[in-house]
């Protein structure tokens, strides 16, 4: 009885620790997506549009920016969101970055899922860090002609496959440049930790 009791206590403690780790990772994920650099750059873009009297662009950008902020905060309060909601968040983010970089790149999102599959749940803010890497690092040395394709497909093993492709400088070159920067991206590292924590759970 004592052995069983001790083992049960350890199981409860391990479960509580896993839950605590999950909450910490979710907070980190929110911070990674809503990082100060992205917000600062977005506000600078609005200011730039106003400075050059591009009022219509400033208004559209501000509207999209407010929608993305609201959506991100709402997503951070839940453990799972639908695939449809994740795609919508990605589209808003890419539209904002496209405006900010003055059409330096184009993007497309391909979805090969059934309507009922679009309602399945995945952890929020899971794919955005990889898309952000493609925008910020892949196209860093390009002035125009950038292309990003994000495709979603379902596998027969009840898994979701998301492929992000770009025609940027490549991961190896981007990695060399990132070692020199003073603001490294932790989004993908946090995502890997989150996936591991979900698997343990």
Question: Order of strands across the biggest sheet?
Answer: 2-4-5
Kindly estimate the percentage of residues that lie in beta strands according to DSSP: 5-15%
Number of distinct helices: 7
For the record, give the distance between the C-alpha atoms at the N and C termini, rounded to a whole number.
27 Å
Q: What letter string, H or E per element, gives the SSE order?
A: HHHEHEEHEEHH
The radius of gyration is 20 Å
> What is the number of E strands?
5
Query: What ranges have pLDDT less than 50 throughout 5 or more consecutive residues?
Result: none
Q: What share of residues is helical?
A: 55-70%
Structural class: alpha+beta
Global morphology: elongated
Main sheet attributes: strand count, strand direction, barrel closure: 3 strands, mixed
Give the overall average pLDDT.
78
Summarize the structure in words.
The protein has helices at residues 2-33, 36-51, 55-75, 83-100, 128-138, 171-180, 187-200, and strands spanning 81-82, 105-112, 121-122, 146-154, 160-166. It is an alpha+beta fold and 201 residues long. A hairpin with a 5-residue loop joins strand 4 and strand 5. Helix 2 packs antiparallel against helix 3.
């Amino acid at each position: 009885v004592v052995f069983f009791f001790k083992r049960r206590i350890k199981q409860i403690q391990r479960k509580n620790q896993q839950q605590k780790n999950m909450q910490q990772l979710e907070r980190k994920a929110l911070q990674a997506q809503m990082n100060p650099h992205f917000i600062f750059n977005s506000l600078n873009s609005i200011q730039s549009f106003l400075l050059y009297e591009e009022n219509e662009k400033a208004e559209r950008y501000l509207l999209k920016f407010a929608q993305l902020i609201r959506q991100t905060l709402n997503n951070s309060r839940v453990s799972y969101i639908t695939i449809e909601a994740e795609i919508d968040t990605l589209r808003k983010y890419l539209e904002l970055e496209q405006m900010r970089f003055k059409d330096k790149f184009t993007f497309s999102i391909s979805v090969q899922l059934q309507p009922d599959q679009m309602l399945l749940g995945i952890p929020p803010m899971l794919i955005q860090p990889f898309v952000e890497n493609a925008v910020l690092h892949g196209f860093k040395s390009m002035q125009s002609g950038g292309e990003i394709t994000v495709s979603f497909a379902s596998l027969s093993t009840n898994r979701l496959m998301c492929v992000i492709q770009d025609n940027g400088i490549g991961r190896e070159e981007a990695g060399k440049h990132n070692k020199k920067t003073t603001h490294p991206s932790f989004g993908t590292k946090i995502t890997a930790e989150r996936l591991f924590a979900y698997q343990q759970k």
